């Protein structure tokens, strides 16, 4: 037997350089490591630098000898903001500048040795974010099998798959300004999906919009891979998954990824993948609160708000009379003047009932018995974490897939309230009271049922457990042919 063939399969994982995808794909990397595979996770230099700054990333995989991190340039200057408004520039740079570096890396000996100088196989399989279409090009050129992974919601991905049909049918661009008109060209969602629930960029009405051009080929791009890995579970998304299988027959729904390691009972110590420094004093504060009495508020790592929106939200929270834990990132509000202009009644109400931090250990917060609800931007990781812990949601989507997700939270799964396109203190107050008081038992009952399904799917014989085992077997089988 060739010496290379005697070594474990070597999988390169390339996440999209954003907090959510990086977080999810680190979880996937950990799982694959504990399945006997050698893993290289490829991070852009910018993301790696932030992880080094805020986490124990350099030491956390000491117990995983098959794991290593490599970095690659995203082709942008160090001072580029790489935020929501500028992120398409990251896509463009990855496609035009990083693609060549990626191919050179895979065809060199750079990945054939770990940090200790021990030999590992050449990369025998690639797992890359499906929006990074150039990775499929490179995989084809060097004859290495590739799996796509999407860390956004299946419901949004399905809309991307349907974009050509929306355009062909004349439903997009919209003929008028009625955002409550139902959308009929997304199979499986005809009875509840409105124009306002489509991904945020659809409101531009411009077919030349760079987002439309990027995402309308999703069905073609993702179907090029051997299979599509999704961070969901059959019991949550079965109707949409069945629709997606008409385009990508080989799906691996293996989520919730963040909970897999807990079920696998690995010895890897708990750690963070956060690009922000976590303030753990909020856990001490939660420890002093009654069960299900606190609403946790966090709008993720990218969403921003105006000072006016901040004040409306704040009054709504304080006037609701509920305890609240609120994450306000340093860059989430334009300017710093809000800190010196907090109305006295808000400051007093927050001191009595609230706690504000710049960033929180979210998984731990959502698992805390004091938390009874989650006011979220509806990023997919946040939704899955909330579903797993049985916490009902108030949804204030910011952009991208979040508009779609919030509609599914309310109308499909019935585990929360959709507050999109709203910023009014009276509505905030009403929704917080509905979730935490008036309809508390109703929402908690449905959320707890969904939580049980999420936990069961990860047990031996469960849907995600079985799909993950099938993924590992397929990776090993394909790697043997390289």
TrEMBL record:
It comes from the Eukaryota. PANTHER family: GLUCOSYL/GLUCURONOSYL TRANSFERASES, GLYCOSYLTRANSFERASE. This is Glycosyltransferase. GO terms for molecular function: quercetin 3-O-glucosyltransferase activity; quercetin 7-O-glucosyltransferase activity. Belongs to the UDP-glycosyltransferase family. Keywords: Transferase. It comes from Solanum verrucosum. InterPro entries: UDP_glucos_trans. The keyword Transferase applies. It holds the Pfam family UDPGT. CDD domains: GT1_Gtf-like.
